[in-house]
DNA sequence: TTAGGGTTAG
């Protein structure tokens, strides 16, 4: 809304004025019911009751026409009645109100107020304020009703400036001590996201009633400051203000977010004692509170005893089971729902997301579309998150197009999820395009950009983004710095990383967490400073976790440092005795360094303890379907074709000078067998499948659960050159963009 | 006045 609206008159000339006059004039006499009683002294006894019985604009217009015919249309009370109907009734029409308003020679403050109320009611606060301005120009003084009507129109962050100007007028006209005006101000500030100012007005109010308290409590909920909602509720009790069901619904919502079962139970008891009338909304709020606090038995008890349930009751139960980890039970209730809207679908989709079942997310999303339920922005964020995890670029792109075409609200959450999805699918160009189009960005946006560039090996771009972020006065947080350190790590920028690590605390007051120390270990270790990396671990103010030791172990593998590897592996196995990945890494290191005796020892220990290696798994999306391959997989319907293509590829590669790199294979087997095992790695199967299933020159995108092995890395480079294909592999830690025989990681991984 | 969303070291 333009601020100028209060400073300058923008009084609207009713475009429909002429049209309305025509409508009234054209009403044929047959439409008009005979109003014989109008003959009895109309001036002294206006037929007010006629207006009170009006149910539609047609009836109102008929009555109005009669009044005009009888020559009593200038009665002020009749004007008020017509305008009140048009402005406040559900069937009302502001254009007609405007038409009548223009015929009144000197409208009184009541009529002005009613017009303001009407424009606010139809969500046109700018028209309301124009009327207000016009009223002042006509020397009509506002009264205590004027401001609540005006203020009620300001309900969003964008309206705050206008709201504040109206507040100034409230003070100027001396209405700042009126209960209703104060309440309207509290409400306006609360809805415009300024709960602290609302609180200030509330504290200064001469009188407060339960409605004002309710406005404050719901305002804190809206600002996600649930702890303060609860404090207000307690304070209200101390002041002896009795809560209404509106209060309790808000308080229960806060309890649900705070997981405050104790206060929740107190509210439940208050309701059970008959202090407020029970309602569906109240019951829903109760089951939500119990479900959120993990008391699913109580939540279900209430749900089952309800005589009437709605979508929300069911959704809350589904969500409750998802939260308690019972995804199958959640699904059972979801399947039983009599009807489902986008919120219920999203609740179920989020359940699968939470349990990392990303494929099921996409399956459910397809079902949702089959049932013709339109996804909203919340659904889209969930789907994009699943696409990011799966590397499902085509589905992700489809989502972006769907959002544009179907006017799904493209808010900051959606844009941030899009950026994250594009980066995690290796498409940095599209991520940047989304970023550039954004009208406003928050710290999540900037952080997603930094992390995104970092994992894609574009360290310089990541650091440029950090500079832009600081220039835009957005404070980085701990996650931002994880991205920054990660960018330095993936690009071997050791000194820069060291500097960022110290400036993080010195300049931004962010205390390093175990994750930040982990990044430093990675930064130093990967660059070959393995001893210094161990020093960092020793000096950490907290206990190093398994990730930190695993990072050091990974660095030892790259730099073939057996001694340090043994230290790291020992520490790791103490923390996680059954971690298969550690044993495999240690085996890799022993194999590379030709320490076969140690290798056998580890293998023996693994067998004894029943430790299994995590099977390598690669995903590749083809025409919107995600295909999954594990090492040696033969379950794919096109398996035969895939293996014969793979054979062909290996022949082509050998012809081009490829030598199989079996150095990391920990098995005590012959060279041929080793080569065979390597050739069945999941990423090779996915590459072969990609080559036979897509058009020439189309990029092959693969997501792998483990780190890509040296041999597969080499093969991918050659494939990109020999077949002229861009191959993008996202492994556990980063992206490898293979183009024309080389990789974006510059073999630094 | 009741249900839902985003970034995180290996």
Automatic annotation (TrEMBL):
The keyword Repeat applies. It comes from the Eukaryota. Residues 657-749 form the DYW domain. PPR repeats lie at residues 108-142, 209-243, 310-340, 341-375, 411-441, 442-476. Pfam families: DYW_deaminase, E_motif, Eplus_motif, PPR, PPR_2. The keyword Repeat applies. SUPFAM superfamilies: TPR-like. GO terms for biological process: RNA modification. Belongs to the PPR family. PCMP-H subfamily. This is DYW domain-containing protein.
């Amino acid at each position: 809304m333009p601020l100028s609206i209060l400073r300058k008159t923008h009084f609207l000339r009713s475009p429909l004025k002429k049209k309305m006059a025509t409508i009234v004039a054209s009403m044929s006499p047959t439409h008009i019911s005979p109003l014989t009683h109008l003959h009895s002294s109309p001036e002294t006894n206006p037929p007010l009751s006629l207006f009170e019985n009006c149910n539609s604009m047609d009836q109102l217009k008929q009555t109005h026409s009669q009044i005009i015919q009888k020559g009593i249309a200038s009665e002020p009370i009749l004007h008020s009645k017509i305008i009140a109907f048009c402005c406040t009734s559900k069937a009302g029409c502001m254009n007609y109100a405007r038409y009548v308003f223009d015929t009144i020679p000197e409208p009184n403050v009541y009529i002005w107020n009613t017009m303001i109320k009407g424009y606010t009611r139809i969500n046109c606060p700018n028209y309301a304020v124009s009327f207000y301005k016009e009223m002042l120009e006509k020397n009509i003084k506002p009264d205590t009703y004027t401001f609540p009507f005006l203020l009620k129109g300001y309900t969003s962050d964008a309206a705050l400036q206008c709201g504040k100007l109206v507040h100034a007028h409230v003070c100027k006209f001396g209405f700042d001590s009126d209960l209703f005006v104060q309440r309207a101000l509290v409400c306006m500030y609360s809805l415009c996201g300024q709960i602290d100012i609302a609180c200030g007005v509330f504290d200064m109010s001469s009188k407060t009633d339960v409605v004002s308290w309710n406005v404050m409590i719901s305002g804190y909920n809206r600002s996600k400051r649930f702890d303060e909602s609860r404090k207000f509720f307690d304070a209200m009790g101390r002041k002896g203000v009795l809560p209404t069901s509106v209060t309790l619904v808000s308080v229960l919502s806060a309890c649900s977010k705070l997981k405050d079962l104790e206060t929740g139970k107190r509210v439940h008891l208050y309701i059970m004692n008959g202090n407020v009338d029970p309602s569906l909304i109240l019951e829903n709020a109760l089951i939500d509170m119990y479900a959120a606090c993990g008391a699913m038995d109580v939540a279900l008890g209430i749900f089952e005893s309800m005589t009437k349930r709605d979508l929300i009751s069911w959704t809350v139960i589904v969500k409750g089971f998802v939260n308690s980890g019972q995804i199958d039970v959640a699904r059972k209730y979801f399947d039983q729902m009599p009807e489902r809207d986008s919120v219920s679908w999203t609740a179920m989709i989020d359940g699968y997301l939470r349990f990392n079942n990303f494929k099921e997310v996409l399956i459910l999303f397809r079902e949702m579309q089959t049932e013709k339920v339109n996804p909203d922005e919340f659904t889209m964020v969930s789907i994009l998150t699943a696409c990011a995890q799966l590397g499902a670029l085509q589905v992700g792109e489809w989502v972006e197009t769907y959002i544009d075409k179907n006017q799904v609200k493209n808010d900051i959450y959606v844009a941030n999820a899009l950026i994250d999805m594009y980066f995690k699918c290796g498409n940095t160009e599209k991520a940047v395009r989304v970023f550039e189009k954004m009208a406003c960005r928050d710290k999540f946006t900037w952080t997603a950009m930094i992390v995104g560039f970092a994992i894609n090996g574009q360290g310089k771009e990541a650091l440029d983004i950090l500079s832009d972020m600081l220039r835009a006065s957005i404070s980085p947080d701990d996650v931002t710095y994880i991205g920054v350190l990660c960018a330095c790590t993936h690009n071997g920028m050791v000194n820069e990383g060291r500097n960022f690590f110290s400036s993080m605390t010195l300049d931004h007051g962010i205390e390093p967490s175990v994750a930040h120390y982990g990044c430093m270990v990675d930064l130093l270790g990967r660059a070959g400073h393995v001893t210094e990396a161990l020093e960092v671990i020793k000096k950490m103010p907290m206990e190093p976790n398994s990730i930190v030791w695993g990072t050091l172990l990974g660095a030892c593998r790259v730099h073939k440092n057996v001694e340090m590897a043994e230290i790291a592996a020992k520490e790791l196995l103490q923390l996680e005795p059954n971690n298969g990945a550690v044993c495999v890494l240690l085996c890799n290191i022993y194999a590379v360094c030709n320490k076969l005796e140690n290798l056998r020892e580890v293998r023996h220990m693994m067998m004894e303890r029943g430790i299994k290696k995590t099977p390598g798994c690669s995903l590749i999306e083809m025409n919107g379907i995600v295909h999954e391959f594990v090492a040696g997989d033969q379950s794919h319907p096109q398996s035969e074709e895939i293996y014969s293509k793979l054979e062909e590829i290996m022949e082509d590669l050998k012809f081009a000078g490829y030598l199989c790199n079996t150095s990391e294979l920990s098995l005590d087997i012959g060279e041929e067998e080793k080569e065979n095992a390597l050739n069945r790695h999941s990423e090779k199967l996915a590459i072969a499948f990609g080559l036979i299933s897509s058009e020439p020159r189309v990029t092959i995108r693969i997501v792998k659960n483990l780190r890509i092995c040296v041999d597969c890395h080499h093969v991918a480079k050659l494939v990109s050159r020999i077949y002229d294909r861009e191959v993008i592999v996202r492994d556990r830690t980063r992206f490898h963009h293979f183009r024309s025989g080389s990789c974006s990681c510059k073999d630094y991984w």
